[in-house]
Amino acid sequence: MIALALGLGLAVLSTGCGQDNDVVVVDEPPLRVSVAFPVDLPTPYRAPAAISVTFNRPAGHDEIEVSIFPLIATGEFAPNNSASGRAWTWKDVQFDPADGCYFWLIDGVNLGRYYDAINGDTVFLREPVMIRIPSSLDRLPSVGFGGSVTSFKAAVIASGTLLFTLPLDSGFNALDPGTFNPDTALAIAVAGRGDDNMELPGFFNMTMLPDNTPYIVVAVKDTNNDLAYTPLDDWWGVWKIDGSVAVVRTAENTGEKDSPYNAAIDIVLEAPVPAAN
Q1: Whole-prediction pTM value?
Q2: Secondary structure (H, E, C), the chain
Q3: Low-confidence ranges of the chain (pLDDT < 70)
Q4: For the domain bounded by 23-268, which CATH number is listed?
C-alpha cells in the first residue's frame, strides 16, 4: 500500500470497487485541488516545514490519500482547524537534501473532473495531482524522460494513470507483477492530456531525476478504485522493446526532436495479472 493512507471508503462519486471503468453520473461536485503549498517546482527552493492543500469543497478522510516519494513517513496529514473543512496540512515533514527531489501525490476516489466521451456520456475521470518539491539544487526540471500511456480497452482511460520510477534493485520482476511495490518508487508522474480527447493516449514527463541514470518505469491505472495501485488488481504496463522489458535512461531535454529525452516510450496498459496460487 502507498504510505499514509487516509481511508479507502468510497463516497457518493464512486460506483464501487471491482470495475474496469471510470465513474458516470454523480451528484456532488468532484474534488479538486484549489491551492497547494508549495507549488509544483517552487523557485527559489526553500525546504518547507509543512506542506498544505486546499480543496474546492470539504474533504473527508475517506476521500483522499497522500504520499511522498521517495517514501516519507514523518509528520501527520490532517485537516486544519477551520470551519470550511477544505484545508489540510502535512506538518513536521522532513526532506533530505540527499534525495534531490520529492514527489508529493494527492489522490482520491473523487479527485478529478468530468469530460464528454465520444459516445455522448458525461464521464468522471480520476486525476491524481503530483507536485515536485526539490530538496537540493542538484536536480533540474529539464532532466528525465517523457512518454505516453496507451489503452486499447475502451472502458480504461489512459489519462490519470500513475507512472512509478523504480531503481533497478527495487526487486520488481515484470514476469511476476506481484513483486511490484509502489513504496519503492523514487519518482512519480501522472499521464494526462491538455485537451478533452481522453480516449487517446495520455502523456507524461518524469523530471527532476539524476542525469544518465537507468530506471524501470511501471504504469498503473487504479481501475478498481481502491487506491492500492497493484498489477494484481489494476490495469498496468511497463515499457517494452520487442516484447522485452526495457530500461529507461534519463537525459536532458534539449528541445530537439531527436533528443534522448524524447525516446519513444509508449507504455500499453494490460489487464490485471491474478496472483499465482
Answers
A1: 0.87
A2: CCCCCCCCCCCCCCCCCCCCCCEECCCCCCECEEEEECCCCCCCCCCCCEEEEEECCCCCCCCCEEEEECCCCCCEEEECCCCCCCEEEEECCCCCHHHCEEEEEEECCCEEEEEECCCCCEEEEECCEEEEEECCCCCCCCEEEEEEEECCCCCCCCCCCEEEEECCCCCCECCEHHHCCHHHCCEEEECECCCCCCCCCEEEEEECCCCCCEEEEEEEECCCCCCCCCCCCCEEEECEECCEECCEECEECCCCCCCHHHCCCEEECECCCCCCC
A3: 1-28, 275-277
A4: 2.60.40.1220
